[in-house]
Structures are given as structure tokens and as C-alpha cells.
Specification:
By secondary structure, this protein is mainly alpha-helical. Helix content is 72%, strand content 0%. The C terminus is likely disordered.
Length: 418
């Protein structure tokens, strides 16, 4: 009972913290999108400069708060690093909000996961429990963070098992379930019961179109491989630089807010418009290309922020672009085209993070529909197999490997060495 209470407490604190973070980001995005005059634009522009300096200072002073935070969480669980959880939580919270205000193409999921893990890390130091280890506290907190960020409790559990390597014992699953349920309830209390992308799909994709599903899996795997290799290359260049490059996405955002504001932020509006089929093929190609490049620039700047939501938007645009292309070349019923937008999300996520179960479950919870579950499984499996042939490494494992050479070891372990 004490372990269940501890898990519920983690879920409660994480749910409140991540909900506050998610609410702050939504307010900031609304504020940025409401710019409709030159005076408001110059006011926003004047604020981006001090914010850029703050983000630069955060990247230098608290390097563990940089980026998405998921590689740091994985290294913390493995015992390769250690840090002050409250300090990282504070700077991640503030830095993530400021990066979104400046328009960086970053999401809330990575910071929410690290914020959740920091809560678990801190509670372990505050109320240690014999039957729950430090690593379990961190994993439970991280999965609760994902659940609260996307109203996706089942995806939080899948993420804990696939990405954070939680041993799936009944004890661990029950404790993790209690935490994600509590965190999700708090999130739903604040944001409502609807999924992040509410969509009504009353039709089931006919079996005769499943050859297109397989083809989409192949296309998304290739696109995910290109994105992963490009991102790792940009991160490597950034790590080798002596300077913090937050200024680059800030300058790019200043131009994009005038000419292509849709690609700023995580990309929520891009997913909504892709589902609605609002963009023609030419516009989709431009938006996908710019979103792709701007995400690379934003993430490699070391600013706090994740790539999950940008990947969701790129996957949605890939699926929509694919569906419009096959509709142009064949006689597929346009009534079924929104299915491919959703399938594109699952396939692209699987190709990059190499976690098919998490991608399948998260896609179902993001869109709140199970009518596409079978083709989602198929497209994810195809994407996983093809990306394996392409020798695509899980993006977060690759980032951990790069960080091994840059981040100091656990200070507690260093003191034990002769």
C-alpha cells in the first residue's frame, strides 16, 4: 500500500507540474499567433533578444536542461550522470516556455518527460521507499510526464517499457499505472476529455488499400532515416562548436513569423490542417521541407525542447502528401484519405524512435480513434523493418551515445574511484 501511495503521489505532483507547463506553453503560443500588426511584431521581436540571452545562459549554466531531456533521463536511469532534480526542473520549465515563445520548432513531450523524471528523482530523495528503487521513481515520473503531456496514459506505460527499459513485472506495471492514471486525470481536468487531435473517422480502411499502407511504411521509414541522420549530424556540429547557437533559430523564426508562421512551435496546427486536407501538394512540400530544416536548427541549438510533436507534424504531412499523391495517380476514394495522415504519424515516429508499441499506442491516444488500429500496426511494423534494413539507430539511444563523451560521470561514483 505504501508503494501505491508513493506512485500516486508521483503522479499527482507530476500531473500538476506538467499541466502547468502545458498550460503555459499554450498561452505563449496563443500570444505569438495573435500578432497581427507591425507594432505587435516589433514588441515580440524586442522580447526575443533577451529571451535568446536567457536560453544561452541556461544552455551554459545547466547543460542537463538542454534539448529534449529524454537522453538525460536514460543516462540518469543507467547511473551515468546525476544532477540536482529541482534545478533541472526549474530551468527546463522556464527554458521550454521561452523557446516556444521565440517560435522554435520544439515540442513539450521531452521536457514533460524530464520534468516528470525530476519530480520522481526529487521524491526519491525526499521520501525514499525500500520496495521502489531510485530508477523506478524516475521511470514512473517520466511516464507520468508523457501521460500528462498528451492525455496518453497507456503510451506512458509503453514508453516506460520500450524506451526506459522498465522491467515489466506486475509490481512495476501496477505502480506505473497508478501514477499515469493520476497524472492523466489532472491533465484531463484542466484540458478536457478530448484527445489532443480529436478526429471523427467513422470508416474502416478497406483491405484493398493495404498495399498503400505498406508503401507508406516504406516511404515514412526512408523519411525518418533521413531525419535521424540529419539531426545527429546537426547535433554533432553543434556539440563541436565553442558557441551556443540559440541565435540561429531566433533569427530564422523572425523571418518565418512574417512569411510562414505555420511551421513555428511544435506543429499542432499543421496536424489539424493536414487532417482536414487544407493544403495542396505544392504547399505541403514547402511546409514539410521548412519544418524539417527548422526542427534540425532548433533542436541543435541546445535550447530546452523536444522533437516528438515536430515529428508528429512531419509524419502527418508525410501521410497527407502520400495520400494526395496516390489519389492523383489512382482511383482511391477521398473519403479514406484522412486515415493515411494518422498512419503517417505512427510510421514516422516508429522510424525515428524505433519503438513501435509506443508509436502505435500514442497515435491511437493522440487521435482518439481505434478504427485505424490494424493498419497502424501494419504500417509501424513495415516502417520498423525497413528502418532496420537502413541501419537506423533509435534516435534517443544515438543521442545518449553522443552524450557519453561530453557529459561528466556521476560525481558520487567518481569519488569512489582511487
Amino acid at each position: 500500500m505504501r508503494s501505491l501511495f508513493s506512485s500516486a503521489l508521483i503522479g499527482l505532483v507530476v500531473g500538476i507540474t506538467v499541466t502547468a507547463y502545458r498550460f503555459s506553453i499554450s498561452r505563449v503560443e496563443i500570444l505569438r499567433k495573435s500578432i497581427d500588426s507591425y507594432s505587435e511584431f516589433f514588441l515580440w521581436l524586442s522580447l526575443t533578444i533577451p529571451i535568446m540571452l536567457i536560453l544561452t545562459k541556461i544552455a551554459k549554466k545547466v547543460p542537463f536542461a538542454s534539448g529534449s531531456g529524454i537522453p538525460q533521463v536514460k543516462m540518469l536511469i543507467l547511473g551515468k550522470i546525476d544532477y540536482d532534480p529541482l534545478k533541472v526542473l526549474l530551468y527546463k520549465f522556464i527554458g521550454g516556455i521561452l523557446a516556444i515563445f521565440n517560435g522554435f520548432s520544439l515540442g513539450r513531450e521531452g521536457p514533460s518527460i524530464q520534468i516528470g523524471s525530476s519530480v520522481g528523482h526529487w521524491l526519491n530523495k525526499t521520501i525514499p521507499h525500500k520496495s521502489i528503487t531510485k530508477e523506478q521513481f524516475i521511470i514512473i515520473g517520466a511516464s507520468s510526464g508523457l501521460a500528462a503531456a498528451f492525455n496518453a496514459p497507456l503510451a506512458g506505460i509503453a514508453f516506460a517499457i520500450e524506451e526506459l527499459r522498465m522491467i515489466p513485472s506486475m509490481f512495476a506495471i501496477v505502480n506505473c499505472s497508478i501514477a499515469v492514471i493520476v497524472a492523466d486525470l489532472i491533465s484531463k481536468t484542466a484540458f478536457g476529455m478530448n484527445p489532443v487531435f480529436p478526429v471523427k473517422i467513422n470508416n474502416v480502411l478497406p483491405l484493398k488499400y493495404y498495399s498503400f499502407v505498406i508503401l507508406l511504411g516504406i516511404v515514412a521509414a526512408i523519411g525518418g532515416w533521413v531525419f535521424e541522420k540529419s539531426l545527429l549530424r546537426c547535433v554533432a556540429l553543434s556539440r563541436n562548436s565553442r558557441y551556443i547557437v540559440v541565435i540561429i533559430p531566433t533569427i530564422v523564426a523572425c523571418f518565418l513569423i512574417l512569411f510562414l508562421p505555420e511551421v513555428l512551435g511544435g506543429g499542432h496546427e499543421l496536424v489539424v490542417h493536414s487532417l482536414a486536407g487544407s493544403f495542396p501538394i505544392k504547399t505541403l512540400v514547402i511546409l514539410l521541407t521548412i519544418k524539417f530544416l527548422f526542427t534540425l536548427i532548433s533542436y541543435s541549438s541546445k535550447a530546452p525542447g523536444g522533437i516528438f510533436l515536430p515529428m508528429v507534424s512531419m509524419g502527418a504531412m508525410t501521410g497527407t502528401l502520400f495520400s494526395q499523391s496516390i489519389a492523383f495517380l489512382s482511383n482511391i476514394d477521398s473519403f479514406h484519405l484522412p486515415n493515411f495522415t494518422i498512419l503517417g504519424v505512427a510510421a514516422f515516429l516508429t522510424a525515428v524512435i524505433r519503438a513501435p508499441l509506443t508509436s502505435i499506442v500514442l497515435t491511437a491516444e493522440l487521435f482518439g480513434s481505434l478504427s485505424h488500429l490494424l493498419p497502424t500496426i501494419l504500417v509501424s511494423v513495415v516502417s520498423y523493418i525497413v528502418s532496420g534494413f537502413l541501419k537506423s539507430e533509435p534516435i534517443y539511444d544515438a543521442l545518449v551515445g553522443m552524450a557519453d563523451q561530453k557529459i561528466p560521470l556521476n560525481p558520487a561514483k567518481e569519488k569512489q574511484e582511487p
